[in-house]
Amino acid sequence: MASGPTQKFVTSQRIPISYWDWGNEGAPPLVLVHGGKDHARQWDRIAEAFRDTYHVVALDLRGHGDSGWSPGGTYGLPDNAIDLVRIIETVGAPARVLAHSYGGSVSLVAAGTYPEYFRRLAVLEGTHSLNPREEPEMGPHWLRAWGDRIRSYEASTPRLYPTIEAAAERIAEANPRLPADFVPHITSYAAKPVEGGFVWKYDWWVNGRTSMEVRREELPRFWAAVACPVLLVFARQGQRNQVHDAAKHFRDARTAYIEDAGHWMHHDQPAATLDVLRPFLAED
Q1: Is the pTM of this model over 0.90?
Q2: Among 3.40.47.10, 3.40.50.1110, 3.40.50.1820, 3.40.50.720, what is the CATH number of 6-129+139-161+209-282?
Q3: Would you give the distance in Å from CA 246 to the centre of its chain?
Q4: Rg (CA), the chain
Q5: Burial class (CB in 10 A: 0-12, 13-18, 19+), 16
Q6: What is the pLDDT of residues 118-162, one digit of tens each?
């Protein structure tokens, strides 16, 4: 039976970034990027499927999992994109990258900014930004709205779950399509013990993003600069705020759909998701 991954750390922008390494270092690198409020070990089953073919690593985005928190609360797409580039430098560029949700948005910005670091990029429901569509243009009103939101976090306290089982119940409630036998595993890496119970590992301030975040209308500029082939994968029952026709903005992109799946398609329909990913990632 294959051994589990080894946890390692690199420093990016003075923040320790945790990543998990499944070995096979002589193989082409494959970097896995999780979504918002998630963590690297949610990729475990996908990583196991690819570890014999690739050198698989999965990072914890800043403020998530075991990676460090940003003291000033800078959790925007540009900040995370530079962290991802640092990971790719560590394992070898150019790399194949597989990313989900917010991690997909991060990866697309990184690939548009540092195209030479990416060989192929597969994105599972990541053609979106968390910025509200009605936001005004940059100016005092926009900055004040962001400032008031971020300052409100100073008085916030994390929700306390009395047991790890209670935390697992919350994950299952939020993602009812998750395989029941995988929920305890995901929860064990998503929560940490504190006095009186358990809290989520991620930094609540990740919701504040950054005062100079990339905005929705600016994303296609990054997409157009991506040089590698891109696979955009959507779920039939996925998030409604995805840009399903995003492929038109790329130099070389194709679109695929996973049937009978929600936003976490790699959990809902892992076999079907792998069937779409394998031939794309295998191409030179």
Answers
A1: yes
A2: 3.40.50.1820
A3: 18
A4: 18
A5: middle
A6: 999 999 999 985 555 556 677 888 888 888 988 999 988 999 999
